[in-house]
Amino acid sequence: MQLKLTKKEREKQIKKEAIICTVMYIVFFIWWLVTGVGLGSKDPSEYTYILGLPMWFMLSCIVGFVLFCIASAVVVKFYFKDFDLEETLEEKEERQSDII
Fold first, then answer.
1. How many angstroms separate the CA atoms of 33 and 77, rounded?
2. Considering the entire predicted model, what is its pTM?
3. For the chain, first and last CA: distance in Å?
Protein backbone atom coordinates (compact mmCIF):
# COMPACT_ATOMS: atom_id res chain seq x y z
CA MET A 1 0.00 0.00 0.00
CA GLN A 2 1.46 3.32 -1.05
CA LEU A 3 1.30 6.28 1.31
CA LYS A 4 -0.16 9.60 0.25
CA LEU A 5 2.40 12.18 1.28
CA THR A 6 2.47 15.89 0.72
CA LYS A 7 5.22 17.36 -1.43
CA LYS A 8 7.15 18.46 1.67
CA GLU A 9 6.83 15.00 3.28
CA ARG A 10 7.96 13.32 0.04
CA GLU A 11 11.03 15.54 -0.20
CA LYS A 12 11.89 14.90 3.44
CA GLN A 13 11.56 11.11 2.99
CA ILE A 14 13.62 11.14 -0.22
CA LYS A 15 16.37 13.10 1.51
CA LYS A 16 16.33 10.70 4.49
CA GLU A 17 16.58 7.65 2.21
CA ALA A 18 19.41 9.22 0.18
CA ILE A 19 21.37 9.99 3.36
CA ILE A 20 20.87 6.45 4.66
CA CYS A 21 22.05 4.97 1.34
CA THR A 22 25.12 7.22 1.27
CA VAL A 23 26.07 6.37 4.86
CA MET A 24 25.63 2.65 4.20
CA TYR A 25 27.84 2.87 1.10
CA ILE A 26 30.55 4.74 3.01
CA VAL A 27 30.45 2.20 5.85
CA PHE A 28 30.63 -0.66 3.33
CA PHE A 29 33.59 0.96 1.57
CA ILE A 30 35.40 1.43 4.90
CA TRP A 31 34.66 -2.23 5.78
CA TRP A 32 36.03 -3.37 2.43
CA LEU A 33 39.08 -1.12 2.70
CA VAL A 34 40.00 -2.15 6.26
CA THR A 35 39.45 -5.88 5.75
CA GLY A 36 40.72 -6.09 2.17
CA VAL A 37 43.68 -3.77 2.17
CA GLY A 38 44.43 -3.79 5.88
CA LEU A 39 44.47 -7.57 6.33
CA GLY A 40 45.74 -8.30 2.83
CA SER A 41 48.85 -6.19 3.00
CA LYS A 42 51.10 -8.74 4.70
CA ASP A 43 53.16 -11.47 3.14
CA PRO A 44 50.98 -14.27 1.66
CA SER A 45 52.86 -16.88 3.70
CA GLU A 46 51.45 -15.22 6.84
CA TYR A 47 47.79 -15.25 5.72
CA THR A 48 45.12 -17.09 7.65
CA TYR A 49 42.96 -19.20 5.34
CA ILE A 50 39.22 -19.90 5.67
CA LEU A 51 37.77 -22.54 3.31
CA GLY A 52 40.90 -22.20 1.19
CA LEU A 53 40.51 -18.44 0.81
CA PRO A 54 42.67 -15.81 2.51
CA MET A 55 40.88 -14.30 5.50
CA TRP A 56 41.13 -10.78 4.05
CA PHE A 57 39.27 -11.91 0.91
CA MET A 58 36.69 -13.87 2.89
CA LEU A 59 35.93 -10.89 5.16
CA SER A 60 36.05 -8.13 2.55
CA CYS A 61 34.30 -9.81 -0.38
CA ILE A 62 32.10 -12.57 1.00
CA VAL A 63 31.22 -11.74 4.61
CA GLY A 64 30.97 -8.01 3.85
CA PHE A 65 28.68 -8.63 0.89
CA VAL A 66 26.35 -10.90 2.87
CA LEU A 67 26.41 -8.61 5.91
CA PHE A 68 25.53 -5.51 3.91
CA CYS A 69 22.84 -7.32 1.90
CA ILE A 70 21.16 -8.20 5.20
CA ALA A 71 21.71 -4.65 6.51
CA SER A 72 20.16 -3.24 3.32
CA ALA A 73 17.08 -5.43 3.68
CA VAL A 74 16.67 -4.36 7.31
CA VAL A 75 17.07 -0.68 6.44
CA VAL A 76 14.54 -0.92 3.61
CA LYS A 77 12.04 -2.70 5.85
CA PHE A 78 12.24 -0.28 8.76
CA TYR A 79 13.31 3.11 7.36
CA PHE A 80 12.13 3.34 3.76
CA LYS A 81 8.52 4.07 2.82
CA ASP A 82 6.58 3.05 -0.24
CA PHE A 83 5.00 6.22 -1.59
CA ASP A 84 3.95 7.66 -4.89
CA LEU A 85 6.36 10.18 -6.39
CA GLU A 86 3.66 11.74 -8.55
CA GLU A 87 1.75 14.80 -7.48
CA THR A 88 -1.67 14.13 -6.02
CA LEU A 89 -4.72 15.47 -7.79
CA GLU A 90 -5.21 18.05 -5.02
CA GLU A 91 -1.61 19.30 -5.43
CA LYS A 92 -2.07 19.64 -9.19
CA GLU A 93 -5.30 21.58 -8.72
CA GLU A 94 -3.66 23.80 -6.10
CA ARG A 95 -0.72 24.49 -8.39
CA GLN A 96 -3.12 25.31 -11.26
CA SER A 97 -5.09 27.69 -9.05
CA ASP A 98 -1.86 29.42 -7.98
CA ILE A 99 -0.97 30.02 -11.62
CA ILE A 100 -4.35 31.49 -12.54
1. 27
2. 0.76
3. 34
CA distance 31 to 13: 27
pLDDT in tens, 23-64: 999 999 999 999 998 888 888 888 999 999 999 999 999 999
Asked whether the beta carbons of 10 and 2 are under 8 A apart, the reply is: no
Greater model confidence, 1 or 9: 9
Q: Where are the domains of the chain?
A: 7-99
The CA distance from 55 to 100, in Å, is 67
DSSP reduced 3-state for 4: coil
Q: What is the pLDDT of residue 5?
A: 80
Tell me the C-alpha to C-alpha distance, in Å, between residue 42 and each of 35, 55, 56, 57, 58.
12, 12, 10, 13, 15
